[in-house]
Amino acid sequence: MTNTDRPLALYGFLRPRPEYADEVRRALSSFVEPTRQEPGNLEYHLHEHEDGRFFLYEVWRSQEDLDRHNALPSLRAFLDNLSTYLEEAPEAYFDTMLSPYAEPDPIPA
Description:
GO terms for molecular function: monooxygenase activity. It comes from Embleya scabrispora. Residues 8-94 form the ABM domain. Keywords: Monooxygenase, Oxidoreductase. Pfam families: ABM. This protein is α+β, with helices and mostly antiparallel strands. The chain has a single domain (8-96), classed as Alpha-Beta Plaits, CATH 3.30.70.100. Helix content is 33%, strand content 26%. It is built from 4 helices and 4 strands; from the N terminus they run βαββαααβ. It has helices at residues 21-36, 63-70, 73-80, 82-85, and strands spanning 8-14, 41-48, 54-60, 91-96. The chain has a 4-stranded antiparallel beta sheet with strand order 2-3-1-4, with helices on one face. The two termini are 26 Å apart.
């Protein structure tokens, strides 16, 4: 990656309706490992806040990689019905990273 290449970060909160909290947790959790294996994914993290909101943090090498991810049928099925599962619209942010992305150190064998 050259200095002019800037990864894209997508992050935000989702507040599930109480009756869908377990379903949302399962769905979001099921996306973690497959997403981390996708070409262009640099980071993908899911957190559960103490107030019941879920926080997602994603970093992608390019818009093209993110678009390819967002077009996956399993993700589309979830996103197309998102308003059913949530109490309010997602609080989401999409930004270009200003700091350089540091490749992770290899895990020692």
